[in-house]
Prior knowledge:
Aldehyde Dehydrogenase, Chain A, domain 2; 14 helices; 2 domains; homodimer
Amino acid sequence: MTELEKMGAAAKAAERELACASGIIKDRALSAISSALIENSGVIIDANRLDFENAAAQGYTAALLDRLRLDEGRIKGMADSITEIIAANDPVGRVISGSVRPNGLKIEKVTVPLGVIAVIFEARPNVTADAASLCLKAGNAVILRGGKEAINSNRAITEIMRNAIKNEGLPADCIQLVGNTSRESANELMKLNEYVDVLIPRGGAGLIRAAVENSTVPVIKPGTGNCHVYVDRSADIDMAAKIVFNAKTSRPSVCNACESLLLHRDIAEMALIAIKARLDEKNVEIRGDEIACTLVEDCVPACEEDWGREYLDYTISIKVVNNINEAVEHIAKYGSGHSECIVTSDYQAAQLFMQSVDAAAVYVNASTRFTDGGEFGYGAEIGISTQKLHARGPLGLESLTSEKYLVFGSGQIR
Amino acid sequence: MTELEKMGAAAKAAERELACASGIIKDRALSAISSALIENSGVIIDANRLDFENAAAQGYTAALLDRLRLDEGRIKGMADSITEIIAANDPVGRVISGSVRPNGLKIEKVTVPLGVIAVIFEARPNVTADAASLCLKAGNAVILRGGKEAINSNRAITEIMRNAIKNEGLPADCIQLVGNTSRESANELMKLNEYVDVLIPRGGAGLIRAAVENSTVPVIKPGTGNCHVYVDRSADIDMAAKIVFNAKTSRPSVCNACESLLLHRDIAEMALIAIKARLDEKNVEIRGDEIACTLVEDCVPACEEDWGREYLDYTISIKVVNNINEAVEHIAKYGSGHSECIVTSDYQAAQLFMQSVDAAAVYVNASTRFTDGGEFGYGAEIGISTQKLHARGPLGLESLTSEKYLVFGSGQIR
């Protein structure tokens, strides 16, 4: 048995015990983790300093160093997130549906844990506590495989969590960390079908692509977002400007930020005056099609590539369309299926857009920035899925469960 | 563009039209397919004769020849299955959940089609009409890739279906058949992520394994069944004998048939007398552990391999256990997560078994043979899933849908 196979077998054994643990026991274990992280923040910070110094010595960028760094405040943040997870309802054991069949069989479909979840992530060490806590709440054992930059921090956090849950009577192996941070360990994890039920890659596009291409274990993947706002002929222009400004600039680096603006030609000129005025507040660069460039000063002509790009920055592409169908077609061609918005006052246009646009979330008259577990009322999230299988949209605790049929009989045969 | 990429692009385009089609239009198209199959049964039978003669000339087994053969009766069966699909509720557009958020955003989660589904199947040509109709009802375009043995039959059926739906105003490319039946075409389909949303392998263990190992497209896979019946100390012995007999012998070749019997030691001797009497009616071969072999005449000693086998035949393995926990452990080790049954009169034993056994369906006092779309009240099914992602248990029409969030705002920003 390889090291990872041993971890897989240990996770499976732990998971069977965890799957039968009551909500009270799981919440007590989470509470113990939360407290232990605060109590041992000195140990975590010492380990994190090692990671930080190694990374700094290797000339990592300021942005990456910032993501790597842990201090009292960030550890408090990790502990607080766990408190929120404790407050959430137990996602396990919920009766999804049920019926009594004509032969008297009583059939119930209930939620159960997925089993063993492998989470592959990159530099941010707070994912360690976050992912482990979400998995634990849903009754799953987790095998964590973080990035090499954060290995000392991840080790310290994992040890603290394992001790905490062991003290509460749960198997320590509900939470395990892969010590080997080579690409090989990630690849082996992606093929560990005998022990791992689901793989979640949490990181950049490269990691997610590698998981899709190589994993024989079923994958739940967070998606990228090339989100559009389409301003219809009938739109309230002030509302449109407010929504575009918010969707583009409130946090440009996230996947639910707007990357592209589509304007109905009849209102394009008027709308652009209002929208440009707001975007200028944040010096947003505009890349427009031919018509947009005649209407906007300082407009950079957009090339084909611009329509498909996720800028994640203060840049937006703008295209003028002849009608709503052209907008829908454009989104079908270039969108990533994340979040799409129409600003309109027209009932038929709203209905058509909602029906025709294929995305995890379709908005009428609201910012795309709302696609988020917290905003949707689900609490903590693992990411936002753009895949169509299993879970689409914000991945809450429910997405970490599977289902099982319970059939209550009295001797029925077929 | 390769041939398959062209088919993928055509399917995507067709699917966007189909996704917006009303239930009435889809049901009319299905009805047209059903009628056309009957009207053109001569054409289908002629094409099938070619396949049959080719296969016979190549020395295929009688079993395979039988699966390949179509006659008036079987074509009528195909048409009747479609009538059942028409009778089912439209799985698309169902509101799964909804809420109004504190900021006034109204959020609805609704079912939508998966998109483009590729179905890879083997010798049985009736799967062509069956899979296409299920996909169509759920608003999905389908790319069918059948086995080479049935290519002429599949071509004839597909052409009839395409014409039928075109006459009803739906794009013919909602249903396409891959003409190339080489292994390469299957492999290419498994990697056609740009156009194919979901892959369903319908066939033997080899095909399913190949799909899991090679597919970068997300897979919904029917599973194999190594189903157990555990007869608890408190069991009603007559009921146990009736259930074991039904689960083992009513149709041994299917995945929900019982393959292994576990007996509590306190009732093993008595139970075996009753059970053996029933199994003898069908000359079921018994492979037992040491104790079972002392209790049963003509018992073949079971080897380690027997515990994990799906016999799909009149053979059963029998093991005597010391208590319910040993039964649960045995099932966790050897079961395939399909259907597991306890026969008991003890409340705590029933609860423990249901909670601890991890399978798609867990039964108390009823035959495992009930794990079936029809028996569960779902109508037609694509198979029975033992995977934990997306859908587990009988795969009804609902499992051919994804979901989407509709967000109704009035200018909300974040």
